[in-house]
Design goal:
alpha/beta, Rossmann fold, N-(1-d-carboxylethyl)-l-norvaline Dehydrogenase, domain 2, 3-stranded mixed sheet, 9 strands, about 15% strand
Length: about 290
């Protein structure tokens, strides 16, 4: 299938690579051209100068960019993807964005005869590189059925959650859960160290019981070592939590713990540590 991929960051670069490995005809666009050139040098595919050019004649256009404004910039305008897409094609957005922007773009796309799925992902850069992401999708069942076999090139689970926007709302639930676990793990490890315990041994023991989590299995050792120069940046997690809190204001949900943790990420940013992995929350407990 002829497809396009817009945005070749830590997630998009390997995701587009899996599409190429699946023998799809991939055209890529990235705001920084050097990344697109690097991708083309490593994979079978074509580089485009604009999103519209990348989208021309593509049956599915994938996007994975930074935020709502970035998403609008690659989708709309004379150089945006919608300008190059033909009727009956499909726009699949893997950005973690607001449900509102997805509904906004879906309405514009529908006027042009284009389908849209909001399809944020979970699994991090490691999951993208291994092709085992979890994808939560909002949109029409017919569009989902069309896109699912292609999305499975880089995913192990692809689930339709409801109409457009439902994918983003599910991703908000994911991020709310993640930060609660990360903060709890950070507090437990900091407590263990203050108590004079062998933190690695503590993790070895409690990971066999009810405290076990993905974060404990994959991040406890790096948190104990103070290694944070990898992974999902605190900057991006705070962006995601702001989306969650804004949505909660609209729907009446209460997020008291999430709101507190969002401010902890603000402290990391104020210290100039926003590019560290989001598990750097433990630094606030060790240094203050």
């Amino acid at each position: 299938m002829k497809v396009a991929f817009l945005g070749l960051g830590n997630m998009g670069f390997p995701m587009a690579g899996h599409l190429a490995a699946g023998r799809h005809d991939v055209t890529v666009y990235n705001r920084t051209r050097a990344k697109a050139e690097d991708w083309v040098a490593r994979h079978r595919g074509t580089l485009a100068e604009t999103p519209a050019e990348a989208a021309r004649d593509a049956r599915i256009v994938f996007a994975c960019v930074g935020n709502d404004d970035d998403l609008r910039s690659v989708a709309l305008g004379d150089d945006g993807a919608f300008a190059g897409m033909r009727r009956g094609s499909l726009f699949v957005d893997h950005t973690t964005a607001s449900a509102d922007v997805e509904r906004e773009l879906a309405a514009i796309a529908a006027e042009k005869g284009i389908g849209l799925l909001d399809a944020p992902v979970s699994g991090g850069q490691n999951g993208a590189e291994k092709g085992v992401l979890t994808v939560m999708v909002g949109g029409l069942d017919s569009d989902f059925s069309h896109a699912r076999p292609v999305i499975e090139c880089f995913a192990r689970a692809v689930t339709l959650m409801g109409p457009v926007g439902a994918g983003q709302l599910t991703k908000m639930c994911n991020q709310i859960c993640c930060v609660g676990v990360i903060q709890g793990l950070a507090e437990a490890l900091a407590f263990a160290l203050k108590a004079g315990l062998d933190a690695h041994r503590v993790v070895e023991v409690i990971s066999k019981g009810a405290a076990q989590s993905w974060q404990m299995d994959n991040r406890a050792a790096s948190m104990i070592a103070g290694a944070f120069d990898f992974g999902f940046a605190a900057d991006w997690m705070r962006k995601d939590l702001a989306i969650c809190i804004d949505e909660a204001r609209r729907n009446g949900a209460q997020l008291p713990v999430t709101a507190i943790i969002e401010q902890f990420f603000a402290k990391l940013q104020a210290r100039g540590e926003g590019r560290l992995d989001n598990t750097a929350l433990i630094k606030l407990l060790q240094e203050e």
